[in-house]
Design goal:
With about 500 residues, this protein is α+β, with helices and mostly antiparallel strands. Helix content is about 55%, strand content about 15%. The strands form three sheets. It has an eight-stranded mixed sheet with strand order 8-15-14-10-11-12-13-9. The protein has a five-stranded antiparallel sheet with strand order 1-3-2-6-7, with helices on both faces. The two termini are about 45 Å apart.
């Protein structure tokens, strides 16, 4: 590699099987989108990963794509449509893993199925990565265009409101579909005295079994809800949400004294109001047709960028059945099954060969990169040597004296509370209502903790990151893109979040 790779973003619970497919997707760019191979890598330490980018190549591809969209906004429409169609096709295929008896499949059948899954996921990543490709430092050129255009026509206060209107999707995410369905179920739960008593007086892990005894019809409805929507929070390796997590959502409604019927009506009215405000702004601003198309595409972009991840989450959820069968056949743990390369999975299924010690080494530390022709997976000392030679190492920074952070406003508002660092599902037990959730970058797997937060602060992210989307949906003050929040703040620190100004202060 000619240039050093830059650690540009981080993620959690991302196993080798997913990381290899992510890298594999780059080889599809020339064929599918007439873009140069982007030259990136992923380094993982026990499922905690860093995305490593060759910024010269990344910026070259970004400039090409941005120019195409500026010249022809329909190009972004095409990418969004590809993401939607390919995601649906992938989910239809991988859903077979949930309904089939995989123990009866031959090794060849399983390998052919896995190979097809990997190819469909790689294609989905190929188009999916193009959407964040448009962002630099968490800010997309569409966001910059929108802010500049609005500032040239409106007062600062009016521009801020118009920005919120144009960046709030009018279509539901899959997570909002779940929220709406739970709000429909909630009145039945709250009006049932036995159910309400259980919700108000017991811990979430106790409630499912208690409901089976005291309110079986509610228990059955809640079980059906979990079966339908549990995948929404799966991400790469789960676990899927079950009845206990949705019980926590119901308890959150009770704790916040939210009336389900009123909340449902409020959401409908807010969506109608947003549609009407958008119409009025378009009449007031009088953009030419090209600018108008870009204005409307901002909204589609904000909606589509996380949606392509949801299709992938659903597919990984389906494929848990495959990895459980692989784990059973070769007597390895589920985490080690997910730590196998495609070559190792093929050899195991077709030739019966697998080395658990290699899988363990790859789980602990691996690096996936690309050369001109193929994906390369290395681990152990080889991965360490590659990282030393090719990865730009972060300079150590003195953080002890930092008392104020700044970032971008994802949702306005203010809050004061104790910091809780939450990056993984296992961190969520620390979270109490009213705490300030601080994360490198939130994911759907920690949404239970996010619902309890008085405010959310992240190192990474911009307009379309997960924290931004969820904070807007939940109306929680949120500051994203601080870069160093998780390095400066610690569990228990008292902080003041002023998301109106994008500022976070340590006050104790």
């Amino acid at each position: 590699m000619e240039n050093k790779l830059l650690p540009a973003a981080h993620d959690f619970h991302s196993p080798l099987m997913r990381n290899e497919i992510w890298i594999q997707s780059g080889f599809l760019w020339p064929e599918l989108f007439d873009l140069p191979n982007p030259g990136y890598a992923i380094e993982s330490h026990e499922d905690t990963i860093a995305y490593l980018l060759d910024m010269d190549l990344w910026n070259k591809d970004r400039a090409i794509l941005q120019k195409r969209i500026e010249q022809n906004p329909e190009e972004l429409d095409r990418l969004i449509e590809c993401s939607e169609q390919w995601g649906q096709e992938m989910n239809r295929f991988t859903s077979q893993a949930r309904s089939a008896n995989l123990s009866s499949w031959s090794g060849t059948d399983l390998w052919n199925f896995y190979e097809r899954f990997a190819n469909l996921q790689a294609r989905q990543y190929a188009v999916g990565i193009l959407l964040p490709l448009l962002e630099v430092g968490g800010v997309s050129f569409l966001e910059s265009f929108l802010k500049t255009f609005l500032a040239s026509r409106l007062s600062p206060e009016e521009a801020a409101r118009a920005f919120a209107v144009f960046t709030t999707p009018l279509k539901n995410s899959f997570a909002l579909d779940q929220e709406d369905a739970l709000l429909e179920l909630a009145p039945r739960c709250f009006s049932n005295k036995a159910c309400r008593d259980v919700l108000e007086n017991h811990l979430p892990n106790e409630i499912p079994s208690l409901l089976q005894q005291s309110a079986p019809e509610i228990s059955e409805a809640l079980r059906g809800h979990a079966e339908k929507f549990g995948w929404v929070y799966y991400v790469y390796a789960g676990p899927a949400f079950g009845e206990m997590q949705f019980v926590e959502f119901l308890q959150d409604l009770l704790h916040k004294r939210i009336q389900p019927e009123g909340e449902t009506q409020r959401k409908k009215e807010e969506r109608c109001r947003l549609a009407e405000e958008r119409k009025k702004y378009l009449e007031q601003l009088r953009p030419d047709e090209s600018t108008k198309r870009l204005l409307l595409l901002v909204n589609e972009y904000v909606w589509a960028k996380p949606r392509r991840k949801d299709y992938q989450s659903h597919s990984y959820f389906h494929m848990e059945s495959f990895f459980r069968e692989f784990s059973r056949r070769f007597d390895v743990s589920l985490k080690h099954a997910r730590s196998a390369t495609q070559k190792q999975i093929r050899e195991a299924l077709l030739e019966g060969k697998i080395d658990p010690s290699v899988l363990d080494r790859q789980y602990k530390h691996h690096l996936v990169s690309m050369d001109e022709r193929e994906t390369i997976v290395i681990s152990g000392n080889e991965a360490k040597q590659f990282s030393t030679l090719h990865v730009l190492q972060s300079a150590s920074e003195e953080m002890a004296s930092v008392s104020e952070l700044s970032g971008s406003t994802a949702f306005p508002g203010t809050a004061t509370g104790s910091v809780r660092l939450i990056n993984r599902p296992e961190d969520m037990q620390k979270m109490q209502p009213g705490d300030i959730l601080v994360s490198v970058a939130t994911t759907p797997s920690i949404v239970t903790a996010m619902k309890k937060a008085a405010a959310i602060v992240t190192d990474e992210g911009g307009l379309t990151c997960h924290a931004s989307i969820v904070s807007r949906e939940l109306h929680i003050p949120c500051v994203v893109g601080t870069k160093i929040a998780t390095k400066v703040l610690h569990d228990g620190d008292l902080v003041e979040v002023n998301a109106d100004k994008g500022v976070v202060k340590k006050i104790g």
